[in-house]
Design a protein that fits this description.
Helix content: under 10%
Largest sheet: 6 strands, antiparallel
Low-confidence stretches: 1-66, 224-257
Number of strands: 35
CATH class: Mainly Beta
Number of domains: 1
Number of helices: 3
CATH superfamily: Kelch-type beta propeller
Amino acid sequence: MPRSRPSRYVNRGPSRVLAVGFLALTLGVGCQAALTPAPTSSATVEASPTATPSATTTATPTTTATGSPTAASWQAVGSLTLGRTGPHAVRLGDGRVLVVGNEGGLGARADSVRTEIWDPASNAWTNAASLNKPRGLFAAVALADGRALVIGGLDQGTSTDSCGNLEQGQQSFSSTWAYDPRPGQDVWSRTGLLGTARTAPAAAVLPDGRVLVAGGYYHTGSNERGTTPARAELAALRTTASDAPAMDTRLADVEAPPVGVALATAELYDPTTDRWSTTGALTYARVGASAATLADGRVLIVGSGQFDVSKVAEQAYDNAEIYDPRTGRFSLAGQMPDIDGAALAKLGVVAPAEPPQVTRVGTLVPLLDGGAVLIGNGGWWKHEGDITRSFRYDARTNRWTEIGQPYAAVWNNATVSGDLHTTPGVPRLDALVARLPDGRILVAGGTATSDGSPDGTLISRSAEAYDPTTNRWAPLPSMPEVRAGGAAVVLTDGSVLVVGGYNSQTMDDPCAEPYGLASAIRFVPSR
């Protein structure tokens, strides 16, 4: 029986922040003189790592060549000049890390043009050349030639919304820009134009160096009800006639009809010719999906976000597709399993009957065995609670299985005035995720949406590692401070740089943004 979901992106959790914060994380694995002040009201979560029947309880450090074990640790690595809630971090060809963008709400923040670079050799941050214009909801990838590529996005708009932000009348970008880190360069250069202007696309680099970009949405530049895109032929909303009426009714009490068109189209960028060309289309239009290049060179794309400006078919939210560069075609790649209500009940939470709305797709990371994991897939039952789950994809069977214990929080009488029941463990919405050199998956920090946190400040600093060879989780040292969102990128020595994010959810002011973190930290695995 088809699932029913409201076709509205729930821009929740931290107020109006990180509409597609998962993009920055996916792509990472996606000048203000002073730091942004730290809030005084955020709460620290010191819960135990996710529990599973087979979970290990200790993390044993390995032994170095000299025979002395070195335990895993977190190290402070200075501060950015700008606090960023949702940056993109890309490792350049010379080993340095480029940080660009600052996702917040659904608009392009003015400070999103500012770029800075961290050098692991000197442990220093320096300002770099800025992007030409404010840009939000874009994709960013590391090119094989050592440059960083920014793709598409959304401009700043022409008029203010009710909170005073330039978020009205925005248009999608078709431009792409590359940053050249070579000595004497430090410049952003305009590269080829996309065939379709697109916002919130998924992107991944193929083994031959080309870049695949797929999905997203085409924004018309108007926010008026009933607006028809001037170039709707550029898009392909893949749904059936029987789905369309249900999709219209799922708006419920929200009067936010689409002013953009979700895209199923895909394109390839060839850095040797600096040109974009069309390739096969997705089965379903997807907005803000997560993408990862698998060990065999194919690209896995999973899920879709929910946005006020566009609609997708309900099937897109919980299934995946694989792109084969040899054929230039996408094929379906399984569906995430349904919520196990009986298992949640044993943990003290009774899940609502209806499937939850999507709040975050999560972070997709490829495994050494050819599969992948999706960490922090979030859903929300309006005024009732939320749930965050993680999954593993087996490329041999084309099947998804749930890993770890979900974090769920549900109010017992369907209102926020009732008693809140939560499962044990740590909420991993907007967690920092990266694959370590030994194949384990680092999962650090995270949060719950406001319904799962009575005061809106449930953010974690705990960390754990998932071992795909044993299907077990093990605790790791906690981060120095609570953190969710931001970006994580693996360095050349196998350590992981974590930048930006937020440590507070301001729920009393609908126009407030979380405090963007300027601090940066580095996870050094045990050796």
